[in-house]
Design a protein that fits this description.
This protein is mainly beta. The chain has four domains: 34-119, Immunoglobulin-like (Sandwich); 126-215, Immunoglobulin-like (Sandwich); 219-417, no CATH class; 422-602, no CATH class. Helices cover 0% and strands 53% of the residues. It is built from no helices and 49 strands. It has a 19-stranded mixed beta sheet that branches. The chain has a five-stranded mixed beta sheet with strand order 2-9-8-4-5, with no helix packed on it.
Length: 602
């Protein structure tokens, strides 16, 4: 499965490519300039490692994804960088997608970087899947392994089609897919032809060999038919989505009540395709999609008509439509922030704009459709922050509270769903020592976001009289992974539930203590000694050694209560408790101190 697009852009490596000159003058970078300076394309690398580069003035955010998650780069004076640590990447030959975004969050530049990860800090190791691309092989064909959540790209010997894919041990089922690399960037791009032969292997701990992937003879296939019943006069067309190559094709939309379509494309026998009808909402004459993949096709209003494997060169799929209507009112103190309604059910998604507190969605089912049961969570009003007319994860939304049933496709019918949107606003700030170095994490029933300080406001929304559980954390992110790690990072947390109070503000105030800690005594008799430095609920741990440690006191939440000691971690969980034994003297202090030097004797 291909969940995100790998764009066909070459990476500019410093020293290997000239710096472009913009119209602003000699030596001035274009505003959308984005490059990777390290590591080099195709490097073998182990964690921790840093990916870094240069960006232009029009880029406000740089993100990098390896398929296992997305990280935000740190930006400074035209340079960006991201650190990957333990268990943050898979092992194997991975394609990293690097996006440069403007201040509105729109992607303006995309790069691809191929790296062979040989060690990710875990007990996992590399396993090699080898075989041969057979039958109609040419040097244009490449291969990758798809584990549903991750992709591993292989190398191919062009002299005989033999291939090798380095993957992470223990990943389980891996589908092997050959693709014709039309643009020569060594990664699969949406729409490139793929093999119908896609053998699946089970990756555990041993190398796997002698796998054959059959390269097909590519042919031109056609899907055609009649579209009838467009009684609303909407701009309706047909579309074809190839589950294997991820190619998206469509006919020109028509406002006629009855029309016909023909869609021709290059494919391979056994490629699975889906046929949709779509509604061209924005009038641009095309079917707009977002991250098309076989499991989650989010797009302009559409409904699945048919799905089948390619056998015949010509396939007739008629699309008889029955008019339906979905409407409702949107009220409450948060209604003004919501500008779209969205409904999704099996193989269909529809959007409608909200205007003057109301929405009205005209759409169609197929005339042979049975009753459709729509889960309440699949009906939402949302704030389209990026203005693309689609709902994206992270955009504010409120779901309906009752399931709804849409009548079958035999007759016209109308459904109504009214929304009452309650809005909460939460502001949190960090003051005091090193406040600019802290992160603020906001979590509620729907959102989880970590941002640099010192202050931020978050809006959250519920339906009707619902409540919202909030967790706010101030984090001194010592290991730089933008996540709270107890025992490593300084973490202070507030938890509360909002109900009647719609606006809430709170702060953290940090006071720093620096402790120079040395030890004296015989540590040999102990199996797993650890050093503990705690201030209130902020607990830090370190191997026993002479060390300078920094911890913080949140003066707004608790008393100072400093504790420093060495303990035997009897249960091996890396923290004090559960039968652990203190093996040094215990240093305590209930009065704030900015710095101290102590020697622990055991």
């Amino acid at each position: 499965m291909k969940v995100f697009s790998l764009f066909a852009l070459f990476i500019l490596i410093a020293g290997c490519a000239p710096v472009p000159v913009s119209s602003s003058g000699p030596g001035v970078l274009p505003s959308d300039y984005l490059t990777v300076t390290s590591p080099a394309q195709g490097s073998e690398i182990a964690v921790p490692f840093t990916v870094s580069g240069v960006y232009g003035s029009g880029i406000a955010q740089v993100t990098i994804s390896s398929g296992a998650g997305t990280k935000n780069a740190g930006l400074s004076a035209g340079n960006w960088s991201v650190v990957f640590g333990t268990n943050e990447v898979s092992l194997g030959n991975l394609i990293f997608t690097i996006n440069g975004k403007d201040s509105l969050g729109s992607t303006v530049q995309t790069l691809s970087l191929s790296l062979l990860i040989t060690n990710n800090g875990t007990s996992a190791f590399l396993v090699y899947v080898t075989g041969t691309l057979v039958s109609n092989y040419t040097a244009a064909w490449k291969v990758y392994g798809d584990s549903l959540s991750r992709e591993f790209f292989g190398t191919v010997d062009t002299s005989d089609g033999s291939f090798s894919i380095a993957v992470e041990s223990g990943i389980g089922n891996l589908k092997l897919i050959a693709f014709r690399d039309d643009n020569g960037n060594n990664s699969f791009d949406d729409g490139e032809p793929v093999s119908g032969s896609q053998p699946v292997v089970n990756v555990v701990s041993n190398n796997i060999s002698n796998i054959s992937v059959v390269i097909p003879i590519l042919k031109t296939y056609t899907v055609k038919g009649n579209i009838s019943g467009n009684t609303y006069g909407l701009r309706v067309g047909a579309a074809v989505f190839n589950n294997d190559s991820l190619a998206v094709l469509y006919s020109a939309p028509s406002i006629l009540q009855n029309s016909s379509y023909t869609i021709s494309f290059i494919g391979a026998i056994s490629n699975e395709i889906k046929v949709y009808y779509y509604i061209d909402r924005n009038g641009d004459g095309i079917w707009n999609t977002v991250n098309p993949n076989p499991l989650n096709l989010d797009a302009e209003n559409c409904l699945l008509v048919s799905e089948f494997g390619l056998i015949n060169l010509t396939n007739t799929v008629d699309i008889p439509l029955q008019a339906k209507l979905f409407k409702g009112a949107v009220g409450g103190n948060g209604a003004g922030d919501m500008n779209y309604f969205r409904i999704a059910f099996t193989s269909a998604v529809f959007h409608a704009p909200i205007a003057a507190g109301n929405y009205s969605l005209a759409y169609y089912l197929l005339t042979n459709s049975s009753v459709v049961n729509v889960n309440a969570a699949k009906m939402i009003v949302y704030h389209d922050a990026d203005g693309d007319g689609f709902w994206s994860t992270g955009e504010d939304n409120v779901a309906y509270t009752n399931n709804i049933q849409i009548e079958n496709g035999f007759s016209v019918s109308t459904n109504t769903a009214d929304f009452f949107v309650k809005k909460f606003s939460v502001t949190a700030g960090i003051a005091g020592d090193d406040s600019s170095l802290f992160l603020i994490q906001y979590k509620d029933n729907w959102n989880n976001e970590t941002l640099a300080g010192p202050s931020h406001t978050w809006n959250s929304y519920v339906f009707g009289d619902g409540t919202n559980s909030i967790i706010l954390s101030a984090i001194r992110d010592w290991n730089g992974n933008a996540a709270p790690d107890p025992g490593i990072d300084v973490i202070y947390t507030y938890s509360f539930v909002l109900s009647n109070l719609s606006v809430y503000s709170t702060n953290f105030n940090m006071m720093r203590t620096v402790a120079g800690i040395s030890t004296n005594g015989d540590i040999a008799p102990y199996t797993n000694p650890l050093l503990y430095f705690g201030i209130g609920t902020s607990k830090l741990y370190s191997p026993v050694r002479n060390i300078v440690m920094t911890n913080y006191w949140n003066t707004y939440s608790e008393s100072y209560n400093l504790k420093i000691y060495v303990f035997e971690d009897n249960n091996g969980d890396g923290k004090f408790g559960g039968g652990d034994t203190i093996i040094s003297q215990r240093v305590t202090n209930n009065t704030y101190i900015a710095a101290t030097n102590i020697t622990l004797i055991y």
